Model the fold of this input.
Amino acid sequence: MKIPCYPVFRYNLLKGVIVGNFLILIFGTVNPEFGLKFALLYWIVMSPFILYLYDGEKEGLEKKLGRRKAGQIAIRLLFVRYFIGFLALVGALIEMYFGENIPLLVIAGTLWSVVYAKLMAETECLKRSEDKNGHEAGMEA
Done:
């Protein structure tokens, strides 16, 4: 697995491990029915807002970075925002089928944080690659 912008990846991994494991433990140990309802409600209620953010970010980034890079960045951010609801769903399903299996919940939270950190590092790396080329930094002739 090639990881661009490794310092950004490490920072996001640390954030993701703390937040991801905390949330998956809450949803996996407190009440699994609440976790299932939360995941579904999160996706239903937040979908219009997430898609609105996607459109706005894509349009704003297209002006700076071009259509291809803007699409890549916006789709990664869209996936990460939907992926947050996945924590509640996985925590609830682990609780329902395996009981209060703390090691399994921690493994699932850590796997979520690795995916989150990689996506966010790729996004930041795509934004920075254009800065170095001078396209958006005001260095055009």
